[in-house]
């Protein structure tokens, strides 16, 4: 069957404003042959993706683990079809002794002193959620317009298929010259919070060792405009408690000379931001420069900000989302309104969640927040600060050889200059990867776009951009094969 989907034309590369993308032809890279190989294999790629979408492999305890195993088996079969022979399904136990999600790992060793690239994606998916919100069956891939709908069609089964199809195209075109080491690592529990990721890395450190890691689990800027995700924020959380009385007392008999704990906790919380809404904790890292900005109207719509509510903080919206800290109170312990009695409340507690800018040491951020909270104890109230979890931020050195190759490949494939974008959230396993392999160059790419609705009803993949993502990665493999990590 011939493809109904527009093939990638082999024309001159152009920017979004229709100026040609500045980029010299790279000796040894046959873009035309790689484009043809990707186009020739694309129907099969899309059909394999549809087969994967049909398997509801969910790594949550309340779902059937047999489906997750079936998902791993199906992925392993697809990996074998690319010609990799040593394909394994591996898992390590969780701390409670139950098995972790099945990961599919395959490795083809590097030859002739070439580097090794590890291609990461995950085959487990989010639960479908409320079936009534879906326009088609979540586990039956359906093409509508230029998109493919289904749970995992984008996040992250398309990431798996992009890796496999890019590898297949590169193998076909490069043939015997293909000496780059390639490792596939398809995790089976990412949507459940990667509970065994760290132990998995410890157990299989040598098997997974590489020079470059491509994490295909993020988004492009918008349909038709590729992006490299160059920063992710870190995170610290914990609680602080304000205690003012030894026990609750009658608010009429004693109210007036002393303020209750919820009032004092509120006053303490109010010191966390200045009058403009910037985080007021001294000593935190944050910066303003970002390559692109987010439209205020888009932000308001996406975040569902009510009309009339003013935005907080200063600087560009993108810097407030990606390269500055953000501090939220995500829970408060105090008597609930339904059971409130007329007493002065002796103690109240808040849980905080603070997003950290790239370059911020989480330990230092936790200490800065502790010092702020302890030194702003209102009216001499007893304040107890209890640190919780912490995770590192991530920033790509875009001058690194690997990042330069990735930016070149994205431009070459889309014909549009890629955006270097941040993500306000965190991908916790990336911190685990940098800890396990401090020297490795990590590239965060993706197949999603802002309309992909990963995790929500009607998740979808833009088929045209998916084809570009496959070609971009094939170009990356080809270029790294030619030049290694020399810039
Ligand atoms: Zn994902």
Descriptive account of the structure:
This protein is of the alpha+beta class. The chain has 12 helices and 18 strands. The chain has 2 domains: 31-231 and 393-483, Zn peptidases (Aminopeptidase, 3-Layer(aba) Sandwich), CATH 3.40.630; 234-291 and 317-391, 2-Layer Sandwich (Alpha-Beta Plaits). It has helices spanning 31-53, 65-81, 157-174, 197-203, 251-254, 261-270, 296-303, 317-322, 362-375, 401-414, 428-436, 463-483; strands at 87-90, 103-108, 116-122, 142-144, 147-149, 181-187, 212-219, 227-232, 234-243, 249-250, 326-333, 343-344, 347-356, 382-391, 394-395, 419-423, 441-448, 460-462. A 6-stranded mixed beta sheet has the order 1-2-6-3-7-17. A 4-stranded antiparallel beta sheet has the order 11-13-9-14. Strands 4-5-18 form a 3-stranded antiparallel beta sheet. A hairpin with a 2-residue loop joins β4 and β5 (147-149). α10 (401-414) crosses α12. The longest helix is centred in the first third of the chain and has 23 residues, at 31-53. Bound molecules: zinc ion. Zinc ion (ZN) is lined by residues 122, 155-156, 190, 217. Zinc ion binds next to loops.
């Amino acid at each position: 069957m011939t493809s109904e989907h527009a093939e990638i034309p082999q024309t001159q590369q152009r920017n979004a404003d229709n100026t040609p993308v500045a980029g010299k032809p790279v000796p040894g890279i046959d873009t035309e042959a790689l484009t043809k190989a990707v186009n020739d294999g694309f129907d099969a790629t899309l059909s394999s993706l549809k087969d994967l979408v049909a398997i509801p492999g969910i790594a949550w305890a309340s779902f059937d683990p047999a489906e997750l195993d079936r998902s791993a088996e199906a992925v392993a079969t697809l990996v074998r079809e690319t010609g990799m022979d040593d394909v394994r399904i591996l898992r390590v136990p969780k701390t409670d002794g139950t098995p972790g999600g099945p990961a599919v790992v395959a490795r083809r060793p590097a030859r002739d002193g070439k580097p090794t690239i590890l291609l990461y994606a995950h085959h487990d998916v989010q639960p479908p959620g409320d079936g009534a919100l879906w326009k088609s069956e979540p586990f039956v891939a359906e093409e509508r317009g230029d998109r493919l709908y289904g749970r995992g069609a984008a996040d992250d089964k398309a990431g798996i298929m992009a890796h496999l199809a890019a590898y297949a195209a590169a193998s076909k075109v490069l043939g015997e010259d293909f000496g780059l080491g390639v490792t596939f690592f398809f995790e089976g529990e990412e949507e459940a919070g990667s509970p065994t990721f760290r132990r998995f890395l410890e157990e299989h450190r040598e098997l997974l060792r590489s020079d470059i890691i491509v994490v295909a689990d993020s988004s492009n800027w918008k349909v038709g405009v590729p992006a490299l995700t160059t920063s992710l924020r870190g995170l610290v959380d914990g609680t602080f408690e304000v205690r003012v009385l030894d026990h609750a007392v009658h608010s009429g008999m004693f109210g007036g000379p002393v303020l209750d704990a919820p009032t004092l906790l509120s006053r303490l919380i109010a010191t966390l931001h200045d009058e403009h809404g910037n985080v007021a904790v001294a000593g935190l890292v944050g910066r303003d420069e970002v390559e692109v900005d987010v439209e205020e109207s888009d932000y308001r719509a996406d975040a569902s900000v009510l009309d009339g509510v003013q935005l907080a903080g200063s600087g560009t919206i993108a810097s407030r989302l990606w390269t500055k800290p953000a501090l939220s109170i995500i829970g408060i312990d105090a008597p609930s309104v339904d059971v409130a009695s007329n007493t002065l409340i002796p103690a109240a507690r808040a849980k905080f969640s603070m997003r950290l800018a790239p370059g911020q040491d989480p330990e230092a951020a936790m200490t800065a927040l502790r010092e702020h909270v302890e030194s702003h104890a209102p009216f001499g109230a007893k304040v107890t600060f209890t640190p919780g979890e912490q995770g590192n931020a991530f920033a790509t050195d875009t001058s690194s050889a690997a990042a330069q190759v990735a930016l070149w490949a994205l431009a070459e494939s889309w014909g549009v200059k890629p955006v270097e974008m941040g993500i306000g959230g965190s991908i916790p396993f990336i911190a685990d990867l940098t800890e396990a392999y401090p020297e490795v160059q990590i590239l965060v790419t993706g197949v999603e776009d802002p309309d992909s609705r990963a995790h929500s009803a009607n998740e979808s993949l833009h088929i045209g951009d998916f084809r570009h993502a496959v070609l971009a990665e094939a170009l990356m493999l080809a270029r790294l094969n030619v030049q290694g990590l020399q810039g």
